[in-house]
Structures
1.
Amino acid sequence: MTVTVSTPTLRGGLRRWLFWIVIALIALLVGVGSLLLSGGQDEGVPRSPESPGPSGSKAVAQVLRDAGVEVSVPAGFDAARSALGSSADSTLLVDDPAGYLDAKRLTAIARRAGTLVLVAPSDQQLQAVLPEAAVAGEVDDRVLDAGCSYGPADRAGSVDGAGVAYRVAEQADAELCFGSGDEAYSVVASDDTVLLGTTAAMTNEHVLDRGDAALVLGVLGQHQRLVWYLPTIDDTAAGGDIAALTPLWVPSVAVLAFLVVAVAGVWRGRRLGPLVVESLPVLVRPTETMEGRARLYAKASARLRALDALRIGTVDRIAGHCGLPGLATVDEVIASASEVTGRDPADVRRVLLAEEPVTDRDLVRLSDELLDLERAVAAATRQ
Protein backbone atom coordinates (compact mmCIF):
# COMPACT_ATOMS: atom_id res chain seq x y z
CA MET A 1 0.00 0.00 0.00
CA THR A 2 1.30 3.48 -0.85
CA VAL A 3 0.29 6.98 0.20
CA THR A 4 0.06 9.68 -2.47
CA VAL A 5 1.16 13.23 -1.58
CA SER A 6 -0.07 15.73 -4.16
CA THR A 7 1.28 19.18 -4.89
CA PRO A 8 -0.98 21.90 -3.36
CA THR A 9 -3.19 23.57 -5.95
CA LEU A 10 -3.25 27.31 -6.56
CA ARG A 11 -6.82 27.51 -5.28
CA GLY A 12 -5.89 25.78 -2.04
CA GLY A 13 -2.93 28.12 -1.53
CA LEU A 14 -5.13 31.15 -2.09
CA ARG A 15 -7.63 29.89 0.47
CA ARG A 16 -4.88 29.57 3.07
CA TRP A 17 -3.54 33.05 2.34
CA LEU A 18 -6.93 34.74 1.94
CA PHE A 19 -6.99 36.04 5.53
CA TRP A 20 -3.56 37.69 5.25
CA ILE A 21 -4.36 39.12 1.83
CA VAL A 22 -7.50 40.75 3.26
CA ILE A 23 -5.50 42.16 6.20
CA ALA A 24 -2.89 43.60 3.82
CA LEU A 25 -5.57 45.23 1.66
CA ILE A 26 -7.23 46.76 4.74
CA ALA A 27 -3.88 48.14 5.94
CA LEU A 28 -3.23 49.58 2.48
CA LEU A 29 -6.64 51.24 2.38
CA VAL A 30 -6.13 52.70 5.88
CA GLY A 31 -2.74 54.10 4.85
CA VAL A 32 -4.10 55.66 1.66
CA GLY A 33 -7.08 57.07 3.55
CA SER A 34 -4.82 58.63 6.19
CA LEU A 35 -2.70 60.19 3.48
CA LEU A 36 -5.74 61.63 1.73
CA LEU A 37 -7.23 62.96 4.97
CA SER A 38 -3.97 64.64 5.89
CA GLY A 39 -4.05 66.37 2.54
CA GLY A 40 -0.45 65.45 1.85
CA GLN A 41 0.64 68.88 3.05
CA ASP A 42 4.37 69.54 3.01
CA GLU A 43 5.41 71.57 6.04
CA GLY A 44 8.61 72.58 4.25
CA VAL A 45 11.72 73.84 6.01
CA PRO A 46 10.97 75.20 9.50
CA ARG A 47 11.13 79.01 9.68
CA SER A 48 11.72 79.26 5.95
CA PRO A 49 10.58 82.60 4.45
CA GLU A 50 9.19 80.66 1.49
CA SER A 51 7.14 78.13 3.47
CA PRO A 52 3.41 78.88 3.98
CA GLY A 53 3.03 75.97 6.41
CA PRO A 54 2.40 76.42 10.14
CA SER A 55 6.10 76.05 10.94
CA GLY A 56 7.23 78.34 8.10
CA SER A 57 7.84 82.09 8.22
CA LYS A 58 6.44 83.30 4.91
CA ALA A 59 4.06 85.71 6.69
CA VAL A 60 6.97 87.50 8.38
CA ALA A 61 8.88 87.82 5.12
CA GLN A 62 5.83 89.12 3.28
CA VAL A 63 5.11 91.81 5.90
CA LEU A 64 8.73 92.95 5.78
CA ARG A 65 8.57 93.24 2.00
CA ASP A 66 5.35 95.23 2.24
CA ALA A 67 7.14 97.56 4.68
CA GLY A 68 9.86 98.25 2.12
CA VAL A 69 12.53 95.87 3.36
CA GLU A 70 14.38 94.02 0.61
CA VAL A 71 14.22 90.36 1.65
CA SER A 72 16.53 87.95 -0.16
CA VAL A 73 16.79 84.21 0.41
CA PRO A 74 20.19 83.11 -0.90
CA ALA A 75 20.81 79.51 -1.92
CA GLY A 76 24.26 78.87 -0.53
CA PHE A 77 27.15 80.53 1.26
CA ASP A 78 28.52 82.38 -1.79
CA ALA A 79 25.06 83.68 -2.70
CA ALA A 80 24.54 84.95 0.86
CA ARG A 81 27.89 86.74 0.83
CA SER A 82 27.06 88.34 -2.51
CA ALA A 83 23.59 89.39 -1.29
CA LEU A 84 25.14 91.22 1.65
CA GLY A 85 27.58 93.10 -0.59
CA SER A 86 29.93 95.60 1.01
CA SER A 87 27.30 97.87 2.57
CA ALA A 88 26.71 97.72 6.31
CA ASP A 89 23.04 98.65 5.87
CA SER A 90 21.86 95.06 5.97
CA THR A 91 20.56 92.48 8.43
CA LEU A 92 21.82 88.91 8.18
CA LEU A 93 19.59 86.22 9.65
CA VAL A 94 21.34 82.86 10.06
CA ASP A 95 19.12 79.92 10.97
CA ASP A 96 21.42 76.88 11.09
CA PRO A 97 20.03 74.28 13.53
CA ALA A 98 22.14 71.50 11.97
CA GLY A 99 25.38 73.47 12.37
CA TYR A 100 26.50 73.30 8.74
CA LEU A 101 28.48 76.55 9.00
CA ASP A 102 31.79 76.24 10.80
CA ALA A 103 33.19 79.04 12.98
CA LYS A 104 35.40 80.40 10.20
CA ARG A 105 32.62 80.77 7.66
CA LEU A 106 30.13 82.12 10.18
CA THR A 107 32.59 84.79 11.33
CA ALA A 108 33.49 85.72 7.75
CA ILE A 109 29.91 86.27 6.65
CA ALA A 110 28.91 88.00 9.91
CA ARG A 111 31.50 90.76 9.28
CA ARG A 112 29.63 91.82 6.13
CA ALA A 113 26.32 92.50 7.94
CA GLY A 114 25.26 95.57 9.84
CA THR A 115 23.25 93.41 12.25
CA LEU A 116 23.65 89.69 12.75
CA VAL A 117 20.57 87.75 13.95
CA LEU A 118 21.24 84.18 15.03
CA VAL A 119 18.12 82.05 15.37
CA ALA A 120 18.50 79.48 18.17
CA PRO A 121 22.30 79.25 17.76
CA SER A 122 24.31 76.40 19.25
CA ASP A 123 27.28 76.71 21.61
CA GLN A 124 29.70 76.24 18.71
CA GLN A 125 28.13 79.13 16.80
CA LEU A 126 28.12 81.31 19.92
CA GLN A 127 31.85 80.73 20.44
CA ALA A 128 32.44 82.19 16.98
CA VAL A 129 30.43 85.42 17.31
CA LEU A 130 29.48 85.93 20.98
CA PRO A 131 31.68 83.83 23.30
CA GLU A 132 30.20 85.48 26.41
CA ALA A 133 26.93 83.58 25.83
CA ALA A 134 26.07 79.90 26.20
CA VAL A 135 23.00 77.75 25.67
CA ALA A 136 20.94 77.42 28.87
CA GLY A 137 18.44 74.86 27.57
CA GLU A 138 15.10 74.59 25.83
CA VAL A 139 12.04 76.64 26.80
CA ASP A 140 8.58 75.11 26.77
CA ASP A 141 5.47 76.69 25.29
CA ARG A 142 4.63 79.56 27.65
CA VAL A 143 4.31 83.34 27.67
CA LEU A 144 7.42 85.39 28.47
CA ASP A 145 7.55 89.08 29.40
CA ALA A 146 10.22 91.37 27.96
CA GLY A 147 11.67 92.84 31.14
CA CYS A 148 14.30 94.88 29.26
CA SER A 149 14.76 98.15 27.38
CA TYR A 150 15.74 96.66 24.02
CA GLY A 151 13.44 98.39 21.52
CA PRO A 152 11.79 95.47 19.66
CA ALA A 153 11.40 93.48 22.89
CA ASP A 154 10.03 96.44 24.84
CA ARG A 155 7.45 97.14 22.13
CA ALA A 156 6.43 93.47 22.01
CA GLY A 157 5.75 93.29 25.73
CA SER A 158 5.12 89.54 25.87
CA VAL A 159 5.70 86.72 23.37
CA ASP A 160 5.41 82.96 22.94
CA GLY A 161 8.60 81.72 24.57
CA ALA A 162 8.91 78.24 23.04
CA GLY A 163 12.46 77.81 21.78
CA VAL A 164 15.91 78.14 23.38
CA ALA A 165 17.27 80.23 26.26
CA TYR A 166 20.80 81.56 26.86
CA ARG A 167 23.02 82.65 29.73
CA VAL A 168 25.42 85.55 29.38
CA ALA A 169 28.50 86.37 31.46
CA GLU A 170 28.03 89.24 33.93
CA GLN A 171 30.75 91.35 32.37
CA ALA A 172 29.12 91.25 28.93
CA ASP A 173 27.46 94.43 27.71
CA ALA A 174 24.15 93.03 26.47
CA GLU A 175 20.41 93.52 26.77
CA LEU A 176 18.82 90.41 28.32
CA CYS A 177 15.16 89.99 27.46
CA PHE A 178 12.36 87.49 28.09
CA GLY A 179 13.71 85.71 31.13
CA SER A 180 12.64 82.07 31.20
CA GLY A 181 14.47 80.75 34.25
CA ASP A 182 17.49 81.11 36.48
CA GLU A 183 19.55 83.73 34.65
CA ALA A 184 18.27 82.36 31.33
CA TYR A 185 16.96 84.65 28.59
CA SER A 186 15.38 83.94 25.23
CA VAL A 187 16.52 87.15 23.47
CA VAL A 188 20.00 88.64 23.87
CA ALA A 189 21.05 91.87 22.09
CA SER A 190 24.74 92.77 22.19
CA ASP A 191 25.91 95.62 19.92
CA ASP A 192 25.24 94.40 16.38
CA THR A 193 24.45 90.78 17.31
CA VAL A 194 21.03 89.47 18.37
CA LEU A 195 20.34 85.96 19.69
CA LEU A 196 16.73 85.12 18.88
CA GLY A 197 15.73 82.05 20.87
CA THR A 198 11.95 82.50 20.62
CA THR A 199 11.61 80.36 17.48
CA ALA A 200 7.85 79.85 17.86
CA ALA A 201 7.27 83.61 17.55
CA MET A 202 8.65 83.53 14.00
CA THR A 203 6.28 80.90 12.64
CA ASN A 204 3.13 81.49 10.64
CA GLU A 205 1.18 79.69 13.33
CA HIS A 206 2.09 82.07 16.18
CA VAL A 207 3.31 85.31 14.61
CA LEU A 208 -0.06 87.00 15.19
CA ASP A 209 -0.20 85.98 18.85
CA ARG A 210 0.61 88.50 21.60
CA GLY A 211 3.66 90.59 20.70
CA ASP A 212 5.34 88.00 18.48
CA ALA A 213 5.04 90.08 15.31
CA ALA A 214 6.36 93.24 17.01
CA LEU A 215 9.44 91.39 18.25
CA VAL A 216 10.28 89.57 15.02
CA LEU A 217 9.56 92.48 12.69
CA GLY A 218 11.47 94.87 14.94
CA VAL A 219 14.55 92.64 15.04
CA LEU A 220 14.57 91.78 11.33
CA GLY A 221 13.46 95.16 9.99
CA GLN A 222 16.29 97.33 11.37
CA HIS A 223 17.88 97.83 7.92
CA GLN A 224 16.67 98.24 4.36
CA ARG A 225 18.04 94.86 3.35
CA LEU A 226 17.44 91.48 5.01
CA VAL A 227 19.40 88.40 3.96
CA TRP A 228 17.51 85.38 5.25
CA TYR A 229 20.15 82.64 5.14
CA LEU A 230 19.30 78.97 5.80
CA PRO A 231 22.55 76.99 5.44
CA THR A 232 22.45 73.47 3.99
CA ILE A 233 24.93 70.63 3.77
CA ASP A 234 26.32 72.21 0.59
CA ASP A 235 27.53 75.12 2.72
CA THR A 236 29.99 73.10 4.75
CA ALA A 237 33.66 73.92 4.51
CA ALA A 238 34.15 70.69 2.56
CA GLY A 239 31.86 71.97 -0.17
CA GLY A 240 29.23 69.35 0.44
CA ASP A 241 31.57 66.41 -0.12
CA ILE A 242 29.90 63.52 1.68
CA ALA A 243 33.14 61.52 1.77
CA ALA A 244 34.87 64.31 3.67
CA LEU A 245 32.02 64.41 6.20
CA THR A 246 32.06 60.66 6.77
CA PRO A 247 33.80 59.56 10.00
CA LEU A 248 37.05 57.65 9.52
CA TRP A 249 35.70 54.46 11.09
CA VAL A 250 32.75 54.10 8.71
CA PRO A 251 34.66 52.55 5.70
CA SER A 252 36.34 49.96 7.95
CA VAL A 253 33.06 48.99 9.59
CA ALA A 254 31.35 48.81 6.19
CA VAL A 255 34.02 46.46 4.81
CA LEU A 256 33.85 44.29 7.94
CA ALA A 257 30.05 44.13 7.73
CA PHE A 258 30.26 43.13 4.07
CA LEU A 259 32.71 40.32 4.88
CA VAL A 260 30.53 39.07 7.73
CA VAL A 261 27.46 39.00 5.49
CA ALA A 262 29.40 37.19 2.75
CA VAL A 263 30.75 34.55 5.15
CA ALA A 264 27.32 34.06 6.71
CA GLY A 265 25.81 33.67 3.25
CA VAL A 266 28.34 30.98 2.28
CA TRP A 267 27.92 29.24 5.65
CA ARG A 268 24.13 29.22 5.74
CA GLY A 269 23.60 28.99 2.02
CA ARG A 270 25.58 25.80 1.41
CA ARG A 271 23.77 23.35 -0.86
CA LEU A 272 22.33 20.28 0.89
CA GLY A 273 20.82 18.73 -2.21
CA PRO A 274 17.16 18.33 -3.19
CA LEU A 275 14.77 17.12 -0.50
CA VAL A 276 12.70 15.10 -2.96
CA VAL A 277 14.19 13.62 -6.11
CA GLU A 278 10.96 12.30 -7.63
CA SER A 279 8.57 14.52 -9.50
CA LEU A 280 5.37 15.23 -7.61
CA PRO A 281 3.11 13.49 -6.66
CA VAL A 282 5.54 11.58 -4.39
CA LEU A 283 4.91 7.98 -3.36
CA VAL A 284 5.75 7.47 0.32
CA ARG A 285 5.97 3.95 1.78
CA PRO A 286 3.57 3.55 4.73
CA THR A 287 6.31 1.99 6.85
CA GLU A 288 8.26 5.27 6.72
CA THR A 289 5.28 7.23 8.05
CA MET A 290 4.61 4.61 10.72
CA GLU A 291 8.21 4.49 11.93
CA GLY A 292 8.51 8.28 11.96
CA ARG A 293 5.34 8.69 13.99
CA ALA A 294 6.41 5.94 16.36
CA ARG A 295 9.71 7.71 17.03
CA LEU A 296 7.86 10.94 17.78
CA TYR A 297 5.51 9.17 20.21
CA ALA A 298 8.45 7.44 21.91
CA LYS A 299 10.43 10.68 22.23
CA ALA A 300 7.44 12.46 23.81
CA SER A 301 6.49 9.42 26.00
CA ALA A 302 3.00 9.70 24.50
CA ARG A 303 1.97 6.14 25.38
CA LEU A 304 -1.78 6.77 25.43
CA ARG A 305 -1.60 8.66 22.11
CA ALA A 306 0.26 5.75 20.52
CA LEU A 307 -2.18 3.21 21.97
CA ASP A 308 -5.16 5.23 20.74
CA ALA A 309 -3.72 5.14 17.21
CA LEU A 310 -3.50 1.32 17.46
CA ARG A 311 -7.00 1.06 18.96
CA ILE A 312 -8.55 3.17 16.18
CA GLY A 313 -7.13 0.88 13.51
CA THR A 314 -8.15 -2.24 15.43
CA VAL A 315 -11.73 -0.99 15.94
CA ASP A 316 -12.05 -0.23 12.22
CA ARG A 317 -10.81 -3.67 11.20
CA ILE A 318 -12.97 -5.50 13.77
CA ALA A 319 -16.01 -3.57 12.52
CA GLY A 320 -15.17 -4.74 9.00
CA HIS A 321 -14.85 -8.39 10.12
CA CYS A 322 -18.20 -8.16 11.90
CA GLY A 323 -19.95 -6.57 8.92
CA LEU A 324 -20.77 -3.36 10.75
CA PRO A 325 -21.30 -0.11 8.82
CA GLY A 326 -18.65 2.63 8.79
CA LEU A 327 -20.70 4.80 11.16
CA ALA A 328 -20.94 2.12 13.84
CA THR A 329 -20.11 3.27 17.37
CA VAL A 330 -17.40 1.78 19.58
CA ASP A 331 -20.04 0.25 21.85
CA GLU A 332 -21.54 -1.58 18.85
CA VAL A 333 -18.11 -2.87 17.86
CA ILE A 334 -17.45 -4.05 21.46
CA ALA A 335 -20.80 -5.86 21.55
CA SER A 336 -20.20 -7.57 18.19
CA ALA A 337 -16.63 -8.62 19.13
CA SER A 338 -17.86 -10.08 22.43
CA GLU A 339 -20.63 -11.97 20.70
CA VAL A 340 -18.49 -13.59 17.98
CA THR A 341 -15.55 -14.44 20.29
CA GLY A 342 -17.49 -15.29 23.43
CA ARG A 343 -15.36 -12.98 25.54
CA ASP A 344 -16.60 -10.88 28.43
CA PRO A 345 -17.78 -7.46 27.10
CA ALA A 346 -16.03 -5.74 30.02
CA ASP A 347 -12.71 -7.32 29.05
CA VAL A 348 -13.19 -6.34 25.40
CA ARG A 349 -14.00 -2.78 26.49
CA ARG A 350 -10.87 -2.71 28.66
CA VAL A 351 -8.70 -3.68 25.70
CA LEU A 352 -10.34 -1.46 23.12
CA LEU A 353 -11.17 1.59 25.23
CA ALA A 354 -10.74 1.71 28.98
CA GLU A 355 -7.25 0.76 30.17
CA GLU A 356 -4.50 3.37 29.96
CA PRO A 357 -0.82 2.37 29.75
CA VAL A 358 1.42 3.64 32.53
CA THR A 359 4.73 2.16 31.38
CA ASP A 360 6.19 1.00 28.11
CA ARG A 361 5.59 -2.58 29.24
CA ASP A 362 1.87 -1.79 29.60
CA LEU A 363 1.85 -0.33 26.09
CA VAL A 364 3.44 -3.46 24.59
CA ARG A 365 1.06 -5.73 26.53
CA LEU A 366 -2.04 -3.85 25.41
CA SER A 367 -0.84 -3.77 21.79
CA ASP A 368 -0.44 -7.59 21.95
CA GLU A 369 -3.95 -7.92 23.43
CA LEU A 370 -5.33 -5.79 20.60
CA LEU A 371 -3.64 -8.05 18.06
CA ASP A 372 -4.97 -11.20 19.80
CA LEU A 373 -8.50 -9.79 19.92
CA GLU A 374 -8.41 -8.83 16.24
CA ARG A 375 -7.13 -12.32 15.27
CA ALA A 376 -9.84 -13.99 17.39
CA VAL A 377 -12.57 -11.89 15.72
CA ALA A 378 -11.14 -12.66 12.27
CA ALA A 379 -10.99 -16.40 12.99
CA ALA A 380 -14.54 -16.44 14.40
CA THR A 381 -16.02 -14.56 11.45
CA ARG A 382 -14.36 -16.85 8.88
CA GLN A 383 -16.15 -19.94 10.21
Note: DSSP finds 14 helices and 13 strands in the chain.
2.
Amino acid sequence: MPACPSCAHDNRPGSLLCEECGTALLSRAAFAGGTKKVDVSNVDPWSGNGSPWVEPHEPLFLHIQGATKPIVLQPSHSSFILGRSREGQRLQPDVDFTPYQGYAKGVSSVHATLRREGGYVTLEDMGSANGTYINGEPLVPGQQFTLRDGDEVRFGGLVTYVHFG
Protein backbone atom coordinates (compact mmCIF):
# COMPACT_ATOMS: atom_id res chain seq x y z
CA MET A 1 0.00 0.00 0.00
CA PRO A 2 1.42 3.41 -0.90
CA ALA A 3 1.90 5.55 2.18
CA CYS A 4 1.04 9.24 1.90
CA PRO A 5 4.10 11.49 2.14
CA SER A 6 2.03 14.08 4.07
CA CYS A 7 -0.07 12.13 6.56
CA ALA A 8 1.40 8.57 6.32
CA HIS A 9 -2.05 7.05 5.60
CA ASP A 10 -1.83 3.61 3.93
CA ASN A 11 -3.74 3.90 0.65
CA ARG A 12 -4.98 1.24 -1.73
CA PRO A 13 -2.57 0.22 -4.50
CA GLY A 14 -2.99 2.38 -7.59
CA SER A 15 -4.36 5.41 -5.74
CA LEU A 16 -3.43 8.75 -7.30
CA LEU A 17 -4.51 10.81 -4.31
CA CYS A 18 -4.33 10.10 -0.60
CA GLU A 19 -7.74 8.88 0.54
CA GLU A 20 -7.26 10.80 3.81
CA CYS A 21 -5.82 14.20 2.88
CA GLY A 22 -5.85 14.40 -0.92
CA THR A 23 -2.07 14.68 -1.42
CA ALA A 24 -0.84 13.42 -4.80
CA LEU A 25 0.81 10.00 -4.37
CA LEU A 26 2.21 9.57 -7.86
CA SER A 27 3.03 11.96 -10.65
CA ARG A 28 0.65 11.66 -13.58
CA ALA A 29 3.56 10.56 -15.79
CA ALA A 30 4.47 7.72 -13.44
CA PHE A 31 0.85 6.57 -13.20
CA ALA A 32 0.21 6.78 -16.95
CA GLY A 33 3.24 4.58 -17.65
CA GLY A 34 1.42 1.53 -16.26
CA THR A 35 -2.05 2.37 -17.55
CA LYS A 36 -3.63 1.24 -20.79
CA LYS A 37 -4.69 4.28 -22.82
CA VAL A 38 -8.24 4.11 -24.13
CA ASP A 39 -9.29 6.46 -26.93
CA VAL A 40 -12.61 8.01 -25.92
CA SER A 41 -12.39 11.00 -28.27
CA ASN A 42 -14.91 9.53 -30.74
CA VAL A 43 -17.47 8.23 -28.25
CA ASP A 44 -20.94 9.45 -29.19
CA PRO A 45 -23.36 10.43 -26.44
CA TRP A 46 -25.85 7.70 -25.55
CA SER A 47 -28.76 9.67 -26.94
CA GLY A 48 -29.36 12.66 -29.16
CA ASN A 49 -25.76 13.80 -29.73
CA GLY A 50 -25.96 16.34 -26.91
CA SER A 51 -23.99 19.53 -27.07
CA PRO A 52 -20.69 19.89 -25.22
CA TRP A 53 -21.48 23.59 -24.61
CA VAL A 54 -23.02 24.84 -21.37
CA GLU A 55 -23.86 28.46 -20.73
CA PRO A 56 -21.69 29.88 -17.92
CA HIS A 57 -24.74 31.00 -15.89
CA GLU A 58 -26.57 27.65 -16.10
CA PRO A 59 -26.40 24.95 -13.43
CA LEU A 60 -25.49 21.33 -14.11
CA PHE A 61 -27.74 18.45 -13.08
CA LEU A 62 -26.64 14.96 -12.08
CA HIS A 63 -29.62 12.62 -12.38
CA ILE A 64 -28.86 9.49 -10.39
CA GLN A 65 -30.58 6.38 -11.65
CA GLY A 66 -33.40 5.53 -9.24
CA ALA A 67 -33.34 8.88 -7.39
CA THR A 68 -36.33 11.23 -7.50
CA LYS A 69 -34.43 14.54 -7.51
CA PRO A 70 -31.22 15.48 -9.33
CA ILE A 71 -28.12 16.87 -7.67
CA VAL A 72 -27.78 20.51 -8.75
CA LEU A 73 -24.28 21.90 -9.31
CA GLN A 74 -24.40 25.68 -9.25
CA PRO A 75 -22.29 27.71 -11.72
CA SER A 76 -20.70 29.66 -8.85
CA HIS A 77 -18.25 26.75 -8.42
CA SER A 78 -15.82 25.76 -11.16
CA SER A 79 -14.63 22.45 -9.68
CA PHE A 80 -16.33 19.63 -7.77
CA ILE A 81 -14.82 16.56 -6.12
CA LEU A 82 -17.20 13.63 -6.57
CA GLY A 83 -17.09 10.66 -4.21
CA ARG A 84 -18.38 9.49 -0.86
CA SER A 85 -17.67 10.58 2.66
CA ARG A 86 -16.11 8.40 5.32
CA GLU A 87 -15.91 9.02 9.03
CA GLY A 88 -12.58 10.61 9.91
CA GLN A 89 -11.73 11.43 6.31
CA ARG A 90 -10.08 14.86 6.04
CA LEU A 91 -10.83 15.50 2.37
CA GLN A 92 -14.61 15.45 1.93
CA PRO A 93 -16.24 15.35 -1.52
CA ASP A 94 -18.27 18.32 -2.76
CA VAL A 95 -20.79 15.84 -4.17
CA ASP A 96 -21.37 12.97 -1.73
CA PHE A 97 -22.81 9.78 -3.25
CA THR A 98 -23.10 8.06 0.15
CA PRO A 99 -26.91 8.57 0.34
CA TYR A 100 -27.24 6.84 -3.06
CA GLN A 101 -25.60 3.57 -1.90
CA GLY A 102 -22.20 4.91 -2.93
CA TYR A 103 -20.28 2.43 -0.80
CA ALA A 104 -22.23 -0.61 -2.03
CA LYS A 105 -21.92 0.56 -5.64
CA GLY A 106 -18.14 0.96 -5.47
CA VAL A 107 -17.79 4.75 -5.38
CA SER A 108 -14.36 5.77 -4.05
CA SER A 109 -13.90 8.48 -1.42
CA VAL A 110 -12.26 10.75 -4.00
CA HIS A 111 -13.63 9.22 -7.19
CA ALA A 112 -13.58 11.95 -9.85
CA THR A 113 -13.31 15.69 -10.41
CA LEU A 114 -15.81 17.63 -12.51
CA ARG A 115 -14.66 21.02 -13.81
CA ARG A 116 -16.34 23.89 -15.63
CA GLU A 117 -13.86 25.54 -17.99
CA GLY A 118 -15.16 28.25 -20.29
CA GLY A 119 -18.33 26.81 -21.77
CA TYR A 120 -17.29 23.18 -21.34
CA VAL A 121 -17.52 20.59 -18.58
CA THR A 122 -14.76 18.03 -18.09
CA LEU A 123 -14.60 14.92 -15.94
CA GLU A 124 -11.44 13.27 -14.64
CA ASP A 125 -11.17 9.94 -12.81
CA MET A 126 -8.89 10.40 -9.79
CA GLY A 127 -7.58 6.84 -9.63
CA SER A 128 -10.81 5.34 -8.33
CA ALA A 129 -10.86 1.67 -7.38
CA ASN A 130 -13.82 0.76 -9.60
CA GLY A 131 -13.41 3.20 -12.48
CA THR A 132 -15.42 5.93 -14.17
CA TYR A 133 -17.26 5.30 -17.43
CA ILE A 134 -18.73 7.71 -19.98
CA ASN A 135 -21.41 6.09 -22.13
CA GLY A 136 -19.95 2.70 -21.23
CA GLU A 137 -16.34 3.58 -22.09
CA PRO A 138 -13.73 3.60 -19.29
CA LEU A 139 -11.80 6.77 -18.55
CA VAL A 140 -8.06 6.66 -18.08
CA PRO A 141 -7.29 7.98 -14.56
CA GLY A 142 -5.80 11.46 -14.69
CA GLN A 143 -7.13 12.18 -18.21
CA GLN A 144 -9.85 14.82 -18.65
CA PHE A 145 -12.85 14.05 -20.84
CA THR A 146 -15.28 16.68 -22.17
CA LEU A 147 -18.87 15.83 -21.26
CA ARG A 148 -21.93 16.39 -23.43
CA ASP A 149 -25.47 17.10 -22.35
CA GLY A 150 -27.19 13.74 -21.72
CA ASP A 151 -24.05 11.65 -21.22
CA GLU A 152 -24.33 8.59 -19.01
CA VAL A 153 -21.63 8.71 -16.33
CA ARG A 154 -20.99 5.65 -14.18
CA PHE A 155 -18.93 5.93 -11.00
CA GLY A 156 -18.14 2.30 -10.19
CA GLY A 157 -21.67 0.88 -10.31
CA LEU A 158 -23.54 4.15 -9.66
CA VAL A 159 -25.25 5.30 -12.87
CA THR A 160 -25.89 9.01 -13.40
CA TYR A 161 -26.86 11.20 -16.33
CA VAL A 162 -25.48 14.71 -16.72
CA HIS A 163 -27.71 17.46 -18.07
CA PHE A 164 -26.84 21.10 -18.77
CA GLY A 165 -29.08 23.99 -17.74
Note: The chain has one domain: 37-164.
